[in-house]
Design goal:
Blueprint: H1 2-16, H2 22-84, H3 88-124, E1 132-133, E2 139-140, E3 143-144, E4 166-174, E5 180-187, H4 194-208, E6 212-213, E7 215-217, E8 223-234
Parallel strand pairs: 1-8
Antiparallel strand pairs: 2-7, 3-6, 4-5, 4-8, 7-8
Length: about 240
């Protein structure tokens, strides 16, 4: 009896320590697998963080190098600015003068364009009787009728001095009626002596006394007003 009790006392702890079931083992395996996966993710995150940290350090080093280069360039610009500061006023004056010249040139261009437009309109328009026209292949020039009878009176300065000689050209404005409305010296004799001036003036006065057959259209149906040259030969 005592022996049986002793055996019961020994077998009771063994009965209490039962083996774990399959489900319990599977649960533990699943738990351990999850912990392993978590550790793997943490390790991967740590590696990525280290790579990012390395990239940040490299970017910081590159930024420092770029900043050093930029500082050198700034110092160079400051030096150049300091060297050129004395010429700043001169540059501003030159710039202002260039702006004024550009504005003047723009105004002159606009004026020339306006004049060109007017001339184009005049050229393209059909001239009427009495209009002032330019000599061209479509215009028959005015023909002087008394050129050989209207001779300039040129006198010599003294008994032993020669009379001025040469060709004088006078530009005359001939009306549609053949009358000279104006006369201007176009080409005078060479020199500036009083005798030469008197000879040039005599030719201009002589041109005012000319009578013309007026300039006309090619078919002769329309008479025009024209500027044209008249030559005088002094011998």
């Amino acid at each position: 009896m005592r022996l049986l009790l002793a055996l019961l006392m020994l077998t009771m702890p063994l009965a209490a320590a039962k083996r774990p079931t399959v489900a319990q083992l599977q649960l533990q395996v699943k738990k351990l697998t999850k912990e392993r996966d978590d550790l793997s993710q943490r390790l991967a995150a740590t590696d990525s963080l280290q790579q990012d940290l390395l990239a940040a350090q490299q970017a910081r080093d590159q930024a420092k190098a770029d900043a050093a280069v930029a500082l050198k360039e700034v110092d160079q610009l400051k030096a150049n600015l300091k060297a050129n500061v004395s010429g700043g006023d001169s540059l501003l004056k030159d710039l202002e003068a260039a702006r004024k010249e550009a504005a003047t040139a723009k105004e002159e261009l606009a004026r020339v364009k306006a004049e060109d437009d007017v001339l184009r309109q005049r050229v393209s328009a059909t001239p009427k009787e009495g209009d002032l026209v330019m000599l061209s292949k479509d215009i028959q020039p005015a023909r002087p009728l008394n050129l050989y009878r209207s001779t300039p009176r040129v006198k010599s300065a003294g008994l032993f001095s020669a009379r001025p000689k040469g060709v004088v050209v006078v530009n005359v404005l001939v009306s549609e009626k053949g009358e000279v409305l104006d006369a201007r010296l176009l080409q005078g004799l060479p020199g500036d002596t009083p005798e030469v001036k008197a000879a040039n003036d005599a030719c201009v006065e002589s041109a005012k006394n000319l009578v013309f057959d007026p300039a006309t259209s090619k078919d002769g149906s329309t008479r025009f007003k024209v500027w044209q040259g008249v030559g005088f030969y002094l011998d």
